[in-house]
Design brief:
The protein is of the alpha/beta class. The chain folds into three domains: 46 residues; 229 residues, 3-Layer(aba) Sandwich (Rossmann fold), CATH 3.40.50; 210 residues, Nucleotidyltransferase, domain 5, CATH 3.30.420. 44% of the residues lie in helices and 15% in strands. The strands form three sheets. Strands 3-4-2-5-6-1-8-7 form an eight-stranded mixed beta sheet. It starts with a helix and ends in an 8-residue tail after the last helix.
Length: 607
């Protein structure tokens, strides 16, 4: 298949920017083999042949830092690269100094002797006082303004202006497209404010994993810009001139870990947070003083989510006399400019097309519109809410399944290569079609009826060959004890299934779609979800959104079935279908229905 010169040029640009061939393949919907052929044919490696290790690492760090919704593997890679970069910078600095002194000695300059003596003094001065941790005393604060001028898009610059406007800064609420750099920007904004003004910053997220993203962005910026290694777990305490200067807190909405803190508050993905009423109480306490800013930002979820009342102004008007109620203009024309409402909240809306007009060149909008249905594109990138009143799994039901997995699941180690040890898991796989992603879901299987089906991992792949998809499933087998792997074999899925068989993967089950099969899959999932036997991390909004899209449909011949309300394709609900494929393991593995006493008698029984 011939590819346009524009596609080849774009692939070359991505390669120079340190994207992996597999990432270029996914981005441009071409095979990995083709990407490797281009690299060899056009000698792209020579374009980076003279780059130092420092440049190579920093380029990859920049690529990963600007990528939202990172996979666990990408987060680990970013952390490892940042550590390597910091060590490399230190080693290079030491090497340069030693070489300079050696040259000075060779030339007989007196400064060489002084340098050697100072170095010897440092080696012998073992009892000197250690430098305070997270010390920002010597950083050049002007670098923040320089960095902002060179790196921020226009909509991010507007957010920064509002943060410094005493009439607008108190309450900001931003509705945004996916992947336009909001989390990255607000992490940077908070770090700038903490360094300049010595004021605490509080980041409140649906889960600990999501809160860690703020910390990772701040640590990377401090390291790359100021050569400072910031350390801390749930908080980072900045010091200046030997004293505490400001503290950055990274919290989840779990009430036991989010009490008693004060500072400028940032709450991300509010339209996906379970227990929004509780969050509002926490927020009002953390930022009650008039000097603190409260910033809410999120992609849209459901019109029925409690946060929508906050966004629309309905919550403000509740219980007020008619004369005191306010009208909030939610029109695109008003919100795209930014608008202060009668409830004293400054609102702003940024779609992916708005972001592009404001200088963000990270997207190919024509490609996005081709990949997603009109409904999916409007929700994911056009800031349109989903009305889930007709959904089989409305948000009000799903929020009961959400937990802060990093805190609640003590038996799962997400940082391990084998997160659940030898516990049996069920894999569900929904293959890639023309306009949707392939989805892989790993569910930890209950050992008895008292336990729940838990989503341990979700991955999505786009535009990949059946061989590639099978290899991704094989990778999951290397990390988990897979007792079931359900794959939709309708159409293109059969080839992926056959590749798994050729790889000698055990317990691979073919699922052939029909109206009856879809009904069986969805009704089983509904029974488990409605029955409180299903859990997933509340930061996993892709699973929430995917499940909300499942609706009851009628086929042309009048048969009732289920789908994502899109003709011809399963739609963006690929994760939901993968979950359903994994849940079908309940048919054969019957111990999940038995009391705990029965589960202790032996291994799970095949029915």
């Amino acid at each position: 298949m011939a590819h346009s010169q524009e596609t080849i040029d774009y692939a070359r640009l991505l390669f120079i920017q340190a994207h992996k061939p597999s990432e270029i393949s996914a981005r441009l919907n071409v095979s990995e083999r083709t990407v490797f052929n281009w690299i060899e044919k056009f000698n792209w490696k020579e374009l980076r042949a003279y780059d130092t290790a420092e440049i190579e690492i920093s380029r990859r760090i920049a690529t990963l830092s600007n990528r939202e919704n990172k996979t666990p593997a990408e987060l680990k890679e970013l952390e490892s690269l940042c550590k390597a970069f910091g060590s490399l910078k230190q080693d290079l600095a030491k090497a340069e100094k030693v070489m300079a002194e050696a040259q000075a000695l060779k030339e007989g300059r007196p400064d060489a002797v002084a340098g050697a003596e100072k170095r010897a003094t440092r080696r012998s001065n073992k009892g000197r006082k250690a430098k305070p941790k997270n010390d920002i005393s010597e950083i050049d604060l002007s670098k923040f303004d320089t960095w902002a001028d060179e790196n921020l898009f226009d909509y991010q610059k507007l957010w920064r202006e509002v943060a410094h406007d005493p009439d607008l800064r108190r309450n900001r609420f931003i509705l945004k497209s996916r992947q336009i750099g909001a989390t990255y920007y607000f992490a940077w904004e908070a770090f700038e404010d903490a360094c300049k003004n010595g004021e605490n910053q509080v980041f409140l997220s649906a889960s600990k994993d999501q809160a860690r993203l703020f910390k990772a962005y701040i640590q990377a910026f401090a390291r790359n810009t100021f050569d400072i290694e910031l350390k801390g777990q749930d908080s980072i305490e900045l010091t200046k001139d030997g004293k505490t200067w400001a503290t950055l807190y990274f919290l989840s909405t779990n009430s036991s870990t989010a009490q008693g803190y004060h500072g400028h508050l940032y709450v991300d993905e509010v339209f996906w947070i379970h227990g929004y009423e509780k969050l509002q109480k926490l927020a009002s306490g953390m930022a009650a003083h008039k000097k603190w800013r409260r910033t809410y930002f999120s992609t849209p979820s459901s019109l029925q989510h409690p946060a929508y009342e906050h966004w629309s102004g309905e919550k403000f008007n509740k219980g007020r006399p008619k004369a005191q109620k306010v009208e909030i203009d939610l029109s695109d024309k008003t919100l795209k400019k930014g608008s202060l409402g009668g409830d004293k909240i400054w609102r702003h809306l940024v779609t992916v097309e708005d972001a592009e007009k404001a200088g963000c060149t990270l997207f190919d909008i024509a490609e996005l519109k081709a990949e997603y249905s009109k409904e999916d594109y409007a929700n994911l990138f056009g800031c349109k809410f989903i009305d889930d009143n007709d959904s089989v799994f409305p948000f009000t039901t799903l929020q009961k399944c959400m937990v802060d997995a990093y805190s609640a699941w003590a038996d799962v180690d997400f940082d391990s290569t084998s997160p659940v040890g030898n516990r049996p898991v069920a894999i569900g796989y929904d293959p890639s079609r023309v306009r949707d992603n392939a989805a892989l879901v790993v569910l930890l299987m209950p050992l008895h009826a008292g336990e729940k089906w838990r989503v341990i991992e979700t991955e999505q792949f786009k535009g990949m060959t059946s061989t590639y998809q099978a290899e991704r499933i094989k990778e999951a087998y290397s990390r988990y004890n897979v007792a079931w792997c359900g794959i939709d074999t309708t159409g293109i899925g059969w080839d992926t299934f056959q590749c798994c068989v050729d790889l000698n993967l055990k317990h691979v089950i073919a699922i052939t779609y029909s109206a009856i099969e879809k009904t069986d899959l969805v009704t089983r999932a509904k029974r488990l979800i409605d029955g409180g036997r299903f859990e997933y991390d509340m930061g996993n909004k892709e699973t929430t959104q995917s499940l909300m899209l499942i609706k009851q449909l009628t086929t042309p011949n009048g048969t009732l079935t289920y789908g994502a309300a899109r003709i011809g394709n399963a739609g963006h609900a690929d994760i939901a279908w993968a979950v359903f494929h994994a849940m079908k393991a309940e048919l054969q593995y019957t111990n999940s229905k038995q009391p705990a006493r029965g589960a202790r008698k032996g291994r799970m029984a095949m029915g």
